[in-house]
Amino acid sequence: MKRIQRVVRNVQPHWVGDGFPVRSLFSYGEEAAEVSPFLLLDYGGPYEFSPTDHQRGVGEHPHRGFETVTIVYEGSLEHHDSTGSHGTIGPGDVQWMTAGSGVVHAEFHSREFARTGGPFEMVQLWVNLPARQKMSPPGYQAITSSQIPRVDLPQGAGTVRVIAGEWPGTTGPARTVTPLCVFDLRLTAGHEWTAPAPEGHTTIVLVQHGRVTVNGQSLASGELAILGRSGTDVLIHCESEAMVLMLTGQPIDEPVVGHGPFVMNTREEIRQAIHDYQTGRMGRLSP
């Protein structure tokens, strides 16, 4: 079994733009080596938005050197970027954007969700790219809920949606640059079972709702555990009905130098990214 290295709890929320009340449960910087290949995890909501004729969100901004993974649980989002990609994702859908050499994009509540208001909940994960891929062409994967396979856990313990990577016998639809898994779990109270986590991989467990015990450590809603790389598997006991996001990934053993929306390997690469954005080399959004 993997040992828990650190538990993150009592993180205060902050606003990203006017549409995303998030708790940043980890981010690159001093934590980069510990959580590699992951860079940042923002847990947005749960939050109740009132109806409005204004699309709340975040306007034009750039990214370079990594991927963003957005999972929507409640509400819906619209995305458009400088490559021409555009789409709306709703409950259960996933947007997997590879910034690579550079993308300029914007994210807002969908027009319909802005009009009706209602509960909103999402996760945004940043995934690092190895140096050889940081200047690769941008890409975009729109993954609908219907495309994500669901697997029943043994003895009625719940279900897992396999977004990326492999649950024994089932492969998720997301294409990843380096080996990693994203599992979306719904767990039934009173059950215990073992989740797969490879030797040498970083493993992270976020409890979104309910309470579970992870390798002997009790975690409540909004709490996150970072586990060591040695050993395999994670023993999860569900204390009350729960919603859990589990991540595993092969670490990228390279320097991480970041500045806001740019994550590269050197300061010079960051300076170049800023220059390229300011001079329009990453493109612009169409009106």
What's the layout of helices and strands?
Blueprint: E1 4-8, E2 14-16, E3 20-27, H1 32-35, E4 38-49, E5 57-63, E6 66-74, E7 77-81, E8 86-89, E9 94-98, E10 103-109, H2 111-116, E11 118-128, E12 139-143, E13 150-152, E14 158-164, E15 166-167, E16 170-171, E17 180-187, E18 192-195, E19 202-214, E20 217-220, E21 223-227, E22 234-249, E23 257-259, E24 262-264, H3 267-278
Antiparallel strand pairs: 1-21, 2-3, 3-4, 4-11, 5-10, 6-9, 6-11, 7-8, 7-10, 9-12, 13-14, 14-17, 15-16, 17-22, 18-22, 19-20, 19-21, 19-22, 23-24
List key phrases describing it.
24 strands, 9-stranded antiparallel β-sheet, 287 residues, 7-stranded antiparallel β-sheet, mainly beta
Overview of this structure, please?
Helix content is 8%, strand content 53%. The protein has helices at 32-35, 111-116, 267-278; strands spanning 4-8, 14-16, 20-27, 38-49, 57-63, 66-74, 77-81, 86-89, 94-98, 103-109, 118-128, 139-143, 150-152, 158-164, 166-167, 170-171, 180-187, 192-195, 202-214, 217-220, 223-227, 234-249, 257-259, 262-264. Strands 1, 13, 14, 17, 18, 19, 20, 21 and 22 form a 9-stranded antiparallel β-sheet that branches. A 7-stranded antiparallel β-sheet has the order 2-3-4-11-6-9-12. The longest helix has 12 residues, at 267-278. The N and C termini lie far apart (52 Å).
